[in-house]
Amino acid sequence: MNDVIVAISTAKATGAISIVRLSGKGSIELVNKSFKGKDLTKVDSHTINYGFIHDGEKIIDQVLVSVMKEPKTYTREDVVEINCHGGIASTNKILETMILNGARLAEPGEFTKRAFLNGRIDLVEAEAVMDLVNAKTEKSRIQSVNQLEGRLTSVIKNFRKELLELLANVEVNIDYPEYEDIEEVTIDMIKERVTNMKKSLLEIIRESENRKIIKEGINVAIIGRPNVGKSSILNRLLGENKAIVTDIAGTTRDIVEGSISLNGIQLNFIDTAGIRNTSDVVEKFGVDKSLEQINLADLVILVLNNNEELKDDDLELIKKLKNKKYITVINKKDLETKIIIDETLVKNTVYTDTISNDGIESLKDKIIELFNLDEIMENDIDIFTNMRQITLAKESLKILEDVEKGINDEVYVDLVAIDIKRIWTKLGEILGENYSDELIDQLFSQFCLGK
């Protein structure tokens, strides 16, 4: 981390402004080589300076240069941001000039990686940065901001502080074994605190798994026989003509996707090919892909035709949904009713028609009800937001259970202390207190360039 890194930190598209960001010891001097204006090496920290970036005697662009000196910067290194006009050509030319001056093109996420390695943020907060950049709904944004503020970090640190206090009490017991009353107090204290910690950690894990839809959204597969109106329902949900709609059965032969936000949660809809027995090779391939989506989806919308009696293909689909969360949509209710529905056979029934949005709001309300979307984030609880964090938390929970069992089995207190230290270490992995280079490289490689 002794070199200067540079990257374009704004979208690579025509816009009002673009930002070329540099970080590292010597970045101010490096930019100053191509800056016409004040001497950047002599200006105060956290100032914006007007001037021109030039290539030799040729002006590249009129710019504002922000100079931020260590340690009060995002990376805790000297940071310079060149705000230029948002043309692609001029932005790329400035980037090229900085590289020719001696900077190295940054790797994806390298600015945030330096912030982590320099102790500016922990691993949980670094992951929150990526989540905030990728947030597609208001609730996912709020969740990312809460994590970026260090709320989850504070919870984990409190757990680890409590574990250290327990270890200190165990050390007293080991150093003074002749005092039996000390051992009794130590064991009682460990048991009470471990039980309370286990309860708190379990609650956070459960809430985290329930709320993972805030970040990941809900994958919804729309399935049914050909020509029951699946594509029409998708188009009305999305508010656009995403899927082709015709009276010809089998028009949709591949999956069609689209997304909307519902109560701050992203719904990822997949309109599948009509499911039926067919000898058409291409259509059969689409049918197979549709059946795969049933297993992959968080929610299935089964569309039935109000104007037809139930077919064997319908009954087969209903059987496949036995253990899935699903909604039954009886479409074409404006036509003559020929379908006979056994309410014990299907569940969560909604009626829609072919010519209006009637029933679409009821369908959305049913989704809200099934996933308790009205209640998500009403409880102000800090949660784990990815599988790395949840997995480490579950491993910590398992060791807590081992400690509890050991106490009940009256094992030696110093053996209990070994497991307590393991929990302390495991929780530290969540924050990045101990990590492997491979983990860090893999995590930050998922960031966008320039962040």
Summarize the structure.
The chain is α/β, with parallel strands linked by helices and 451 residues long. It has 15 helices and 13 strands.
How would you portray this structure in words?
- It is a single chain.
- With 451 residues, the chain is α/β, with parallel strands linked by helices.
- It folds into three domains: 5-122, Probable tRNA modification gtpase trme, domain 1 (Gyrase A, domain 2, 2-Layer Sandwich), CATH 3.30.1360; 135-211 and 382-432, Four Helix Bundle (Hemerythrin (Met), subunit A); 215-370, P-loop containing nucleotide triphosphate hydrolases (Rossmann fold), CATH 3.40.50.
- The chain is built from 15 helices and 13 strands.
- The protein has helices at 27-32, 88-100, 110-117, 123-134, 138-148, 151-175, 180-210, 212-216, 230-238, 281-296, 312-320, 360-370, 387-408, 413-431, 437-444, and strands at residues 5-8, 15-23, 35-37, 47-55, 58-68, 79-86, 104-105, 218-224, 256-262, 265-271, 299-305, 326-331, 349-351.
- The strands form two sheets. Strands 3-4-5-6-2-1-7 form a seven-stranded mixed beta sheet. Strands 9-10-8-11-12-13 form a six-stranded mixed beta sheet, with helices on both faces.
- Strand 9 (256-262) and strand 10 form a beta hairpin.
- Residues 243-254 have low confidence and may be disordered.
Span from first to last CA? Answer: 16 Å
Shape: flat
CATH topology of the largest domain: Rossmann fold
Helix content: 40-55%
How many helices in DSSP terms? 15
CATH architecture of the largest domain: 3-Layer(aba) Sandwich
Order of strands in the sheet with most strands: 3-4-5-6-2-1-7
Number of strand segments: 13
- Flag low-confidence runs: 243-254
Question: What's the CATH class of the largest domain, please?
Answer: Alpha Beta
Radius of gyration: 29 Å
Largest sheet, in brief, is: 7 strands, mixed
User: What is the H/E string?
Assistant: EEHEEEEHEHHHHHHEHEEHEHEEHHHH
Q: What's the CATH H-level superfamily name of the largest domain?
A: P-loop containing nucleotide triphosphate hydrolases
Query: What structural category characterises the helix and strand content?
Result: alpha/beta
Strand content bin: 15-25%
Q: How many structural domains can be distinguished in the coordinates?
A: 3
Q: Could you tell me the mean pLDDT?
A: 84
